[in-house]
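Q: Could you predict the 3D structure of N-acetyltransferase domain-containing protein?
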Amino acid sequence: MSTWTVRRVTPADEQAWRALYRAYREFYEMPDDESALDTVWSWALDPAHEVEAWVAADTDDRLGGLAHVRRFARPLAASTGLYLDDLVTHPDRRREGVGTAILEHVQRYAAAEGLTVVRWITAADNARARALYDQHATATPWVTYDLAPGVEA
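A: Sure. Here are the predicted structure tokens for N-acetyltransferase domain-containing protein:
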């Protein structure tokens, strides 16, 4: 079992990050789109962009997983939360504590920043991920909707 360090991505992580993110997009049946990876990678390196990209690295600095997070306003609670957009573990590194290391890092970060919740969604049929998430968080009763801009309902 490896010991994982969760840290911000660096330019040196690009190829390993791309491989992980490509696999993540494939898992969710997103089309292969290098321009999308280029865009997200540019966000990851831009300290002014709202998205922060973190990676879990082993003692040899090999990446075992990644996460993308961003803050969001919570008007009803009059507070700010942290949204976990993406969490992916390298298929060869599953069951080695990568996901746990990332979730614990996200939790500590949110607490240190005074944020009031860490929130994310996952596919209802993603049993492997949900088994991990159920160990760290509480599933909510909320239902998610998507509304296409410019299209009348």
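Q: Anything worth pointing out?
A: The chain has a mean pLDDT of 94.
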